[in-house]
Specification:
Layout: H1 2-45, H2 54-75, H3 84-88, H4 91-121, H5 124-127, E1 129-134, E2 147-149, H6 151-179
Antiparallel strand pairs: 1-2
Helix pairs in contact: 1-2, 1-6, 2-6, 4-6
């Protein structure tokens, strides 16, 4: 059991710190996304001419916000779940069912990891150039010159999957510890860990 706690505590600390940083970045991405959308609406309806890069910039912010907030929501139970069967089962059977579902989720996440890397980030479309997003001040970076490379957007969801895998591993270890009857020694995961995440 001490081995499981030895694995859990560093993973728990790492997830707490990384997800808190991710939350700050995601909030900034959300604010930028909202400003770009409002700016696009203003320019389109008031000046009858919106900059063509605002839509792609807003999508960029949305992808990074999703990739960074999904792991935090998963960790604190913020996703929609159907738990009628779990509630109807005896405590031990419900705990085993939860562990099985976490194992299936991990398997799906590993498939998403592979597909995200090999079908999006590291592909011709991922290495392609953005149609409208450009680096400020004419800065030229990489093969796309002054335009953003598409994999800057695609990487957001792949990063999110990596974080989801780490969170899933933490939840699996926590569930095994609960099955062993040591659940009272675990630190509770709650929304308060992420002040204002509700």
């Amino acid at each position: 059991m001490s081995v499981l706690f030895g694995l859990l505590w560093p993973l728990e600390r790492f997830n707490t710190v990384v997800l808190a940083i991710g939350k700050a970045i995601a909030v900034a991405a959300l604010a930028i996304m909202v400003c770009l959308i409002l700016g696009q609406v203003f320019f389109r309806y008031v000046l009858n001419d919106a900059p063509n890069w605002t839509e792609e910039g807003a999508r960029f912010g949305m992808l990074w916000m999703t990739g960074l907030m999904a792991p935090m929501a998963y960790r604190i139970g913020g996703f929609v779940s159907i738990d009628m069967l779990e509630r109807a089962l005896p405590r031990m059977a419900a705990a085993i069912l939860t562990l099985i579902l976490l194992a299936i989720t991990l398997w799906v996440l590993f498939i998403a990891w592979d597909k995200g890397l090999n079908n999006h980030v590291d592909t011709i479309s991922g290495r392609g150039c953005s149609s409208s997003l450009r680096w400020p001040f004419g800065i030229e970076i990489g093969t796309c010159g002054n335009r953003f490379q598409n994999n800057y957007q695609f990487t957001s969801l792949w990063v999110g999957v990596n974080l989801l895998i780490l969170v899933n591993l933490e939840l699996m270890i926590r569930q095994i510890i609960k099955l062993a009857g040591q659940g009272e020694k675990l630190n509770p995961l709650s929304v308060e860990d992420y002040a204002g995440a509700e």
